[in-house]
Amino acid sequence: MAEAQPIQLLVNESKGENSSTGPVGQRTVSAPAQNYRIRWLRIALYTIFGIGGQTTAALLTRLYFEKGGTSKWVGTLVQVVGFPILLPYYFISQPKVITPNSTAAVETKPSSLLLLVCVYVYLGLLIAGNGYLYSVGFEYLPVSTVALISASQLAFNAFFSYFLNSQKFTPFIINSLLLLTISSALLVANNSSERPPGVSNGKYVLGFICTIFGTATYGLSLASQQLAFRKVLKRQSFKVVIDLTIYQSLVASIATSIGFFASREWKGLKREMEGYALGNTSYVMTLVWTTVAWQVSIFAGVGLVFELSALFANVIGALGLPIVPIAAMIIFHDKISGIKGISMVLAIWGFISYAYQQYLDDRKLNAETKKKSEVSEV
Q: Across-strand partners of 11?
């Protein structure tokens, strides 16, 4: 019997054929099980990097403010200036197409340089604004509160994905979004005893509002990344993920640096370092490792958007919710009140609901691929 040709399943998101997962452009799904396993291995690695980077970055950012750091612009810079750690990729690896058969599915014309620059500038400015808003939140709120409020980014991303990427909503996705939104809304009832020392009522409210807006801009940035992959970047290679991560971070770094020097906060850095409770060396190491952790988290988020969808990348972020509050309780002695406990349970429930929808989509895709393969062999 002649060997069957690999079966390709072409998915077109531009027509709205996307539920919980799905590629960001016109992508093919190859029949061989090996390709399937390799793809999900990449997704698993992105997930581990995303959760690990997000948790570490949140804790170290709070440590910076807890032990004497006062600069919101420094807190923003460390979120975006870590992109040089990705530069060695250009010297040690050649661009590889992720899906071997994807070139057979669709020929795409490269986008103009001007359009690419506009996309990178837009995404970079979004990330810079998002970083500053989160810095305000980390300064005035307990890290556990910031982490749980961040669950609402899934709802924001779903809203933006619906309009930008024709995101299809199933009952399980809607259930997940409702649970995560309620989880975040419950935190409004947090009592004032959970505030960090020296934080007034006005600063606490400001931190809460900035964190909410930060989650909104983050959800918009992921939905915009998915749109950029699908409509502008188009190419299906790992290099595209690296390029987007580096260029948007470069723009964000430039914008944040302008704000940093314009605010004149750089004049107080020496005094801030000398007054840091853990010492000068710890001050530098805290900022360095915070930078690395944020960059790992950003890279993993872009990778998940590329492999699946912006909404799935947000769900992975929600998966880290139970880790950050528990770690904050141990390290910073944040209180886990009854309201926070309920919020955490709802967040986990919302993630499970979304993960189940992912399982259903994946099983349906495998069944269709197997059926087409059997037809081809006959």
A: 27
* Pairing relationship of beta strands 27-30 and 8-11 according to DSSP bridges: antiparallel
Report in angstroms the alpha-carbon separations of 280 from 74, 155, 261.
16, 41, 22
Chunked mean pLDDT (size 10), the chain, 378 residues: 40 43 45 67 87 87 85 89 88 56 47 88 93 88 76 75 77 80 64 63 86 88 86 79 90 93 86 88 92 90 79 71 71 70 77 75 73 69
Cβ atoms of 143 and 324 within 8 Å: the answer is yes
* Rounded Cα gap, residues 266 and 35, in angstroms: 50
Token pair of 158 as six digits: 């779903």
Cα separation of 234 and 247, whole Å? 16
Q: By the 8 A CB rule, do 31 and 7 touch? A: yes
Q: Whole-angstrom Cα distance, residue 320 to residue 309?
A: 18
Q: Which two tokens stand for residue 213?
A: 């807006």
Q: Are 305 and 229 in contact (CB under 8 A)?
A: yes
